[in-house]
Amino acid sequence: MPRVFTQTFTVPPDAIDELRHVNNLKYLAWMQDVAIAHSTARGWPLERYLRSGAGFVVRSHAIEYRRPAFLGEEIALHTWVAGFGQRSSPRKYLFRRTRDNQILATAETGWVFVDFRSGQPRDIPDDLRAAFEVVPPEEEEALLAA
């Protein structure tokens, strides 16, 4: 699905906590990293946001952990834009272990488009909206069922 952006990586030693599985904060960092990579791939790297004087900031995160991940496991992290409001956009994430295709976690971030000088929400520009195809709910269901 071209609307879904995917990065695959191997769990590094610095992701492991005292319980010998991936620390929950690493999932959050990976979510941010893949969102930035997706935006860059769609023609909106950080530099473009900086030039425009506005960009997305996080309003909220929700993560549901389903299974633990361990050192050396390969994970496919999928992300997609689930919609656009006037000044905000939900982005969803799906973590899968590639060895057995098990879902490790699902997540969603609420992003708000803000003016960098004032810190106030601003309308999402049309050219930014046009860079991302929204994944409809039925495609989300297919991703989760795969």
Notes on the protein architecture:
This protein is an alpha+beta fold and 146 residues long. It has one domain (5-135): Hotdog Thioesterase (Thiol Ester Dehydrase, Chain A, Roll), CATH 3.10.129.10. The protein contains four helices and five strands; from the N terminus they run E-H-H-E-E-E-E-H-H. Strands 1-3-4-5-2 form a five-stranded antiparallel sheet, with helices on one face.
Topology:
Blueprint: E1 5-10, H1 24-41, H2 46-52, E2 54-65, E3 74-81, E4 88-97, E5 103-115, H3 126-130, H4 137-145
Antiparallel strand pairs: 1-3, 2-5, 3-4, 4-5
Q: Please, what is the average pLDDT?
A: 95
Strand content: 25-35%
Strand order of the largest sheet: 1-3-4-5-2
* E-strand count: 5
Helix content: 25-40%
Provide a concise account of the structure shown:
By secondary structure, this protein is an alpha+beta fold. The protein has 4 helices and 5 strands; from the N terminus they run E-H-H-E-E-E-E-H-H.
List the main descriptive attributes of the protein structure presented here.
5 strands, 4 helices, single chain, Thiol Ester Dehydrase, Chain A, about 150 residues, 5-stranded antiparallel sheet, alpha+beta
